[in-house]
Amino acid sequence: MKKERFWLVVSFFTAVIIYAWVSSALLGGESPLSIRQLNRLFASLGFWFFFLQFVLSSRLKLIESGFGLNRMIHAHRLLGRLALIFLLLHPLLLFMHEGLFSAGTPFRIAGLTVLLMLMLTAFVASFHKKLKLSYELWLNIHKVNYILFPVALIHIFGNALPGSLLYYIWLILTLLFALLLVEKIIREIKIRKNLYEVVKVQQESKDIWSLYFKGKQLAYQPGQFMYLRLLRNGKLSSAHPFTISSSPTWEMLTVTPKELGDFTATIKDTKVGDLALIDAPYGIFSFLNYDCDRLAFIAGGIGITPFMSMLRYIYDERIEKQVTIIWGNKDEEALCFQEELDKMAREMENIKVVYVMSAQESWRGEKGRIGGKVIDKYVPELARCHFFVCGPPMLSLAIMKTLREKGVPGRRIHHELFEF
Ligand SMILES: Cc1cc2nc3c(=O)[nH]c(=O)nc-3n(C[C@H](O)[C@H](O)[C@H](O)COP(=O)(O)OP(=O)(O)OC[C@H]3O[C@@H](n4cnc5c(N)ncnc54)[C@H](O)[C@@H]3O)c2cc1C
To answer: Which ligand 1 atom lies nearest to the CA of residue 238?
Structure first.
């Protein structure tokens, strides 16, 4: 589903909820503008946005394939905040209307429990980095929402007017939530049935390793990513996103993680014969999604991986698009794949590779940070180019700003951040 269409669908169904709320109020013989009914509106919108949290975080192919998982997670955060605001306004109005201590029924206790837990998960989601919580702990706290939703259903059905349009909408959302869970379970069963085997572990630089997997042939676009879990010594790791660095033309599937934290530091301990659970493909960061004959790839550090996949594909398929890749690193030591990139550039005239070193005085090529000057020098026809940017968030955002200042329209700038 495309981005615009997604927001149109969300807006349409939000309008349907508002319409259903008005009709339910009228059915109950109350003015929709009474405090009691306004309070119900906030509850209804909060619950609807709460439901969307599950749709947006469950990697549904229908939405993901046009919208991209990055955008889905972004929308998930945005609507999560909206859900919390509406759900907080709901008891506030209720207390204004009925007094603080009137809320004693089991349905209300269920609602209050959900609200308190949601506040906790929202707090952890916003501050987990400052609190120095591990990603896994943060994720597990976040997953509590799957229990909170059925509790919220108890609250909402306890207060809904049977026979009203709103009541039927809640029934539909309950069914959809159950279907989402079933889809998740079926996906997990399929992943566990199609295990991949590690057939090669290759060191690419001092802290970068490639893992090669053999298993069921996967249909993917160059530039897409996977969720990887490794089964080593009988222990299953948590799922981490990694770009598929191989080309769809290859028989084997590869990822190229750089050591960064707890999990990536253990990649080098992976052994041939270890098993992997792979959930893929995800993402829309691929030149195949755009009609263009000139490509400018701009990478920072390990942000090279989606471009390796795309370049390998372009090389294998002998695609004649003009491709310039500008790759920024600290120094030569940080480079990987250099031989392969140079070979591609030597053998195909339409591929140009530019290395930029930010902290190596002795480097004979481009030095400093990738900015407007380097882009102007190596990508002369900005107006005809599609730009693909991938790297650390700070660098990627700075490059995108530079491109926009140069007048490149947003629809021709595509980016992948290695962070959700
Ligand atoms: C679409 C995408 C593609 C990526 N491709 C690559 C790649 O090709 N090569 C590469 O080296 N890195 C890639 N990354 C980054 C990689 O996922 C993280 O470096 C890795 O998960 C860090 O895990 P850790 O336990 O080693 O580090 P930690 O110190 O635990 O985490 C460091 C940061 O990584 C992120 N992170 C950690 N665990 C997860 C998780 N399970 N799911 C999502 N994010 C997480 C969080 O932002 C966290 O703050 C990619 C990330 C994304 C989102």
So the answer is: 41
Fold annotation for 3-191: Four Helix Bundle (Hemerythrin (Met), subunit A) (1.20.120)
CA 112/CA 101 separation, integer angstroms:
12
Task: Report the run of H or E that residue 243 belongs to, with start and end.
Answer: strand 240-243
pLDDT digits (tens, 9 = 90+) for 58-94: 888 888 887 888 888 899 999 999 999 999 888 887 7
Token pair for 333 = 């030591």
For ligand 1, atom 29, the nearest C-alpha belongs to 261
Helices (H), 270-304: none
Q: What is the pTM of this model?
A: 0.90
To the question of domain 194-282 being in CATH 2.40.30.10, the answer is yes
Q: How many CA atoms lie within 13 A of 191 on its CB side?
A: 20
Q: Encoding tokens for residue 298?
A: 């701009």
Cα 6 to ligand 1 centre (Å) = 26
C-alpha 266/C-alpha 228 separation (Å) is 13
264 C-alpha to ligand 1 centroid (Å): 8
Query: For the segment 164-217, what is each residue's pLDDT rounded down to a tens digit?
Result: 999 999 999 999 999 999 999 999 999 999 999 999 999 999 999 999 999 999
